[in-house]
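Example for tutorial group B:
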């Protein structure tokens, strides 16, 4: 039996069940990205949170996930995928329970970080389990397609479910739903998922890991706390300097390491580099969109949490329908068209929102949300395709993990920037047009992100870009 394959015949008997268990885990992680946003005003009132506190309740989660995705994947390859998967499910479930009990914003942020530590072990490890379970290429493609559909649906229904639970039971209930699902997934993992390890594992890169954490924490902290401490304050300037030095040090160190945490050679591939930038920009747009609109609908417009969730339904529906459509476009070799639709949708939705006011007509608002949802629903498939396109099979998982990390980095930046832009212009209050007008600059930023994504779609699919893939694939195959 190869150490890279599952260590039990159960894989052949229950491949669909194993896929279902893995999809349960990604359901937890993906829905948590969006479900919390609709509950933010309720959390603000109950825990007397500042805007910065609300930002940290989201970014405390995404920063930790972004920081430890790569480490979780390599550790699972080394000591056992099922073992790390179980630990991840246990930490996520425990963190969810503790979040539901949090008495203060600070406690909530700490518990969210614990939850995120578990979440970082689920996405890459579940993908490794799926890859090792479905050895037939067509079956594997169908399984990954199912996985992707669950991600899209989970993120789409999060605001609707979050609004309903917050309105009927209270914001703490958005964390309760993770507990039975998590416990069931742990039980099924123990019973049905066989243990597996990689035949060749990458060495741990502690220096690179520390530099990644320092870069993200200091950058996000500076962006969130800038409006409070002052952009010219020594503390904020120092944070930006530390983030820059850590990033430069990370690049310099990873260039000379034989088995780096982040293989910089990947970025010689134009499609991979484009996928990374697209992931950051798209999820900056999406996380900022959810953060600001959850506050706008409930605090500025006075809607209930459930009504706010219903208002976001056009975004959810568009994402649900456009995700498989985008996958079919990419599968048919039309990744350029998918990326152009994604960039145009994000830019178009943001452009409409630059005209947002406290009394904006509801049909106009819902139309803007739907256009934005088309862009967001279409963007994920071309990101994953461009990230792994042309990569040797042995490196495809690492490339996909880097793309996932880029998504989480973008999600962190989106909330940090959205909150900081609005606070810098109108302070702590969320009062009618004062708050609404302060969001316009952020929507112009997202409009620019959409334009850049469309441009990257054109640049990353040309002949010159494809030749760069062949060069990087040759180098990686030699290793």
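The residue assignment follows.
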């Amino acid at each position: 039996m190869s150490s890279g394959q599952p260590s039990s015949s159960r894989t052949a008997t229950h491949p669909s069940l194993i896929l279902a268990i893995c999809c349960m885990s990604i359901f937890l992680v993906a829905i948590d990205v969006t479900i919390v946003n609709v509950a933010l005003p309720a959390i603000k009132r109950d825990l007397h949170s500042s805007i910065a506190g609300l930002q940290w309740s989201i970014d405390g989660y995404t920063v930790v996930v972004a920081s430890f995705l790569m480490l979780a994947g390599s550790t699972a390859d080394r000591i056992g995928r099922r073992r790390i998967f179980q630990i991840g499910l246990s930490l996520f479930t425990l963190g969810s329970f503790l979040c539901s009990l949090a008495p203060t914003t600070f406690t909530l942020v700490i518990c969210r970080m614990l939850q995120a530590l578990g979440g970082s072990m689920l996405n890459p490890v579940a993908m490794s389990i799926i890859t090792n379970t479905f050895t037939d290429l067509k079956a594997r493609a169908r399984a990954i397609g199912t996985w992707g559909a669950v991600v899209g649906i989970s993120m789409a229904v999060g605001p609707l479910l979050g609004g309903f639970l917050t309105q009927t039971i209270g914001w703490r209930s958005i964390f309760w739903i993770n507990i039975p699902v998590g416990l069931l997934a742990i039980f099924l993992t123990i019973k049905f998922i066989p243990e597996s390890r990689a035949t060749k594992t990458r060495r741990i890169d502690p220096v690179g890991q520390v530099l990644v954490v320092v870069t993200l924490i200091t950058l996000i902290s500076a962006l969130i706390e800038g409006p409070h401490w002052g952009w010219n304050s020594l503390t904020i300037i120092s944070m930006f300097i530390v983030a820059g030095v850590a990033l430069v040090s990370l690049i310099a160190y990873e260039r000379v390491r034989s088995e780096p945490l982040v293989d910089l050679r990947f970025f010689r591939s134009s499609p991979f580099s484009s996928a990374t930038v697209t992931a950051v920009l798209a999820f900056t747009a999406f996380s900022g969109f959810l953060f600001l609109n959850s506050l706008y609908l409930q605090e500025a417009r006075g809607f209930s949490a459930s009504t706010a969730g219903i208002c976001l339904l056009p975004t959810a529906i568009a994402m649900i329908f456009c995700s498989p459509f985008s996958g079919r476009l990419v599968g048919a070799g039309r990744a350029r068209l998918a990326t152009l639709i994604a960039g145009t949708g994000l830019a178009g939705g943001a452009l409409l929102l630059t005209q947002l006011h406290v009394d904006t007509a509801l049909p106009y608002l819902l139309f803007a949300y739907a256009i934005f949802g088309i862009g967001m629903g279409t963007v994920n498939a071309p990101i994953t395709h461009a990230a792994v396109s042309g990569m040797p099979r042995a490196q495809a998982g690492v490339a996909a993990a880097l793309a996932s990390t880029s998504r989480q980095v973008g999600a962190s930046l989106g909330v940090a920037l959205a909150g900081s832009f609005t606070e810098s212009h109108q302070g702590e209050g969320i009062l009618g047009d004062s708050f609404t007008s302060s969001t316009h600059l952020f929507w112009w930023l997202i409009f620019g992100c959409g334009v850049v994504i469309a441009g990257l779609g054109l640049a990353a699919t040309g002949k010159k870009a494809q030749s760069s893939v062949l060069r990087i694939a040759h180098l990686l195959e030699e290793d």
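The chain has three domains: 8-194, 206-257, 262-479. Compare this with the pattern of hydrophobic and polar residues in the output above.
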